[in-house]
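Fig. S4 source data, part A: sequence.
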Amino acid sequence: MKKAQNQTKSRIVSAAWKLFYQYGYENTTIDDITELSQTSKGSFYHYFNSKDDLLGSLSYLFDKKYEELIGTMDPKLSPAEKLLLMNRELFLMIENTVSVSLLSQLFASQLSSKGEKRLLNPDRTYYKLLRQIAVEGKEQGLFRDDLSVNDVTKAYAVFERAMLYDWCISDGNYSLCQYSEKMLPLFLNGLSRQTGG
């Protein structure tokens, strides 16, 4: 039953973001979303109070991407290689399927919302995967001794959010993927034992 519910929610979220990207947030109606997702309005309102609620669901879409990655990621990759792969896959997805204005609206909704900060939810697949990689890195002695698993996890998440935020306020006038491919290795180098301590 729960799996069927998750699939329904997933279909609604995927359809919504596809339509938002194609036609814009303002031009997409709940009817459009239910039609494309082949669900009912009742199902829509079971998961979301309004179309605005869907803005926070972008983190759900990101986590779906991470779940796919977990299934295909080569376990032989080093922790740093896993982080680089995670970043590249997410940023590619964002560049190809999420407009700058939608991502900006997501950040705005998280900044002004008194409700749940979905991007920061520690139960997200994103944070579970990050913690797992950070634990692996600490066990292998790759990260600085003065940084805990939580420090590494948070620093990486903050780095990514900063990149996304900058891309939004720059109106997407550069390639998110290309810039991150240049900057993320430098950032990870700062967390590593060789340079940091």
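Fig. S4 source data, part B ends here. The two ends are 51 Å apart (CA to CA).
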